[in-house]
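Reminder: ligand-aware prediction takes two inputs, not one.
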Amino acid sequence: MDYLLNNLEYKDKYRLLTNCIVPRPIAWVSSISKDGIYNAAPFSYFTGISIEPPLVLFAVERRNGEKKDTVINIENTKEFVINLVTENNIEQMNETSKDFEFGEDEIKMSGLTAVPSKYVKVPSILESPLHMECKLYDTMEIGSSPHSLVIGEVIAVTVNDEMISDGRIQMNALQAIGRMGGKWYTKTDHLFELERLDWRKSELNE
Ligand SMILES: Cc1cc2nc3c(=O)[nH]c(=O)nc-3n(C[C@H](O)[C@H](O)[C@H](O)COP(=O)(O)O)c2cc1C
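Here is what comes back for the chain with flavin mononucleotide:
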């Protein structure tokens, strides 16, 4: 079967791409409006793009032609936090993807607890064990849809101590969730190691 993207409708392109780009990490983004109202929402068009500076990127489409609350908030306050989605908070993550009215505290309404972050004014989500505190680096509008690319510089990562052993975050302890196509998600409870064949001593993964 061949799919020619130019022949597909918007929703079919979306469905195809999100079925192909799997599994995707989920940026569960907390933000704050210029009036101080808390917001949270998941975005799975998400990746890291650079180490120096340490940059992450997520892409947000329009809702009925309007920017989503997360983008409006980040453009106003220049800060956000990415909270890790895990087996323990997946239902609440899903709650925060609902179309709340602008100005509603989505963290509270989803049964979540906002806790102060250490380096940004935006709160972190207590029910998540790992937080990436970010300052806005840049935004960009792409395509005719259009989508907002939000690029953040990671200022600090805070991780629950029980996730750390030998100075490293324990991948098995995180119980991170990935997003597949449609309603499908994946757990990360079946991890395995694979040695890099051309690994050089000076490289990053020592
Ligand atoms: C797992 C998951 C991943 C999502 N990923 C994206 C995404 O990458 N881009 C996007 O625009 N919307 C995405 N959504 C939808 C948004 O989370 C949803 O529109 C949300 O209401 C936006 O909230 P806000 O208006 O408070 O920013 C995703 C939803 C779920 C459940």
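The chain has a mean pLDDT of 95. The domain at 15-187 is CATH 2.30.110.10 (Pnp Oxidase; Chain A). We will return to this case in the review session.
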